[in-house]
Amino acid sequence: MYCMQRKCGLHHLPGNEVCRRQDLRAFAIDGSVGVSVSGGLRQLAQFFCCHPSLWDDPALYVYYLLYRVNQTEGCQFIGYSSKVLS
């Protein structure tokens, strides 16, 4: 078991599965509900781009996460996209 799995305690994402095709899964996470996940995604994005909107409150966004499900290794994170709630 990975160290992060021991510390986190989450067994599933705090969002809804919006799409499923073969071994791919897409989840929608409201930033105000999944605070720890959305904060982690915002920190991940700061490694790759320097944009003023990254400093906004993560509760203002909906995050769409893409995972690949493998029977032997479990879920593997592929990427994500975010959209401002209006």
Structural account:
- The protein is an alpha+beta fold and about 90 residues long.
- The chain has one domain: Gcn5-related N-acetyltransferase (GNAT) (Aminopeptidase, 3-Layer(aba) Sandwich), CATH 3.40.630.
- Helices cover about 25% and strands about 40% of the residues.
- The chain has 2 helices and 4 strands.
- A 4-stranded antiparallel sheet has the order 1-2-3-4, with helices on one face.
- A hairpin with a 3-residue loop joins strand 3 and strand 4.
- The longest helix is centred in the middle third of the chain and has 14 residues.
- The chain is globular, with a radius of gyration of 13 Å.
- The mean pLDDT is about 75.
At a glance:
The protein is α+β, with helices and mostly antiparallel strands and 86 residues long. The chain has helices at 3-8, 35-48; strands spanning 16-21, 24-30, 61-70, 74-84.
Output mean pLDDT: 76
CATH structural fold name: Aminopeptidase
Number of domains: 1
**Strand order within the widest beta sheet:** 1-2-3-4
* Main sheet makeup: 4 strands, antiparallel
